[in-house]
Amino acid sequence: MPKLIQSLRRSFDQIDRVIAGWMRENGTRLLRISLGIIFVWFGALKFFDGMSPAESLVRRTVYWMDPDLFIPILGGWEVLIGLGLLYRPAIRAAIFLLFAQMPGTLLPLFLLPEVCFTIMPVGLTLEGQYIIKNLVLISAALVVGGTVRSDIRESRPA
Known about the structure:
Elements: H1 2-45, H2 55-61, H3 67-86, H4 91-111, H5 113-116, E1 117-119, E2 123-124, H6 126-132, H7 134-145
Antiparallel strand pairs: 1-2
Helix pairs in contact: 1-3, 1-7, 3-4, 4-7
């Protein structure tokens, strides 16, 4: 029985190494592409009245500017971020635009807490969850941004 267990462990280890290697080789590139798709998609929705689930939240948050003007501008900004992430030479610009935009995405937490929280500060509404998920986008952007140097490539292991 011990030989069978050792054999199974070796087989599992070999499979695990292959899977982990594939993830290391492809993970950052897939993260960049998926992040780009999300920004293009979410941004493009803002060009069509009522299509973006964030539209009403943006309308209530950016009260100092005409939302009919601001929402398409925001959509264009997000599409540029997404396209920049999809076109590898433009990653630096995309990351800059993304980090310039992210503080604004957190504004509803402060300006509209009644919309974002059921119980302050831990109980999140759907809108609050939508905003907090930006922490994942920020972290993903940090990982992708770490690949902009020519000596650090997406597929290169850490």
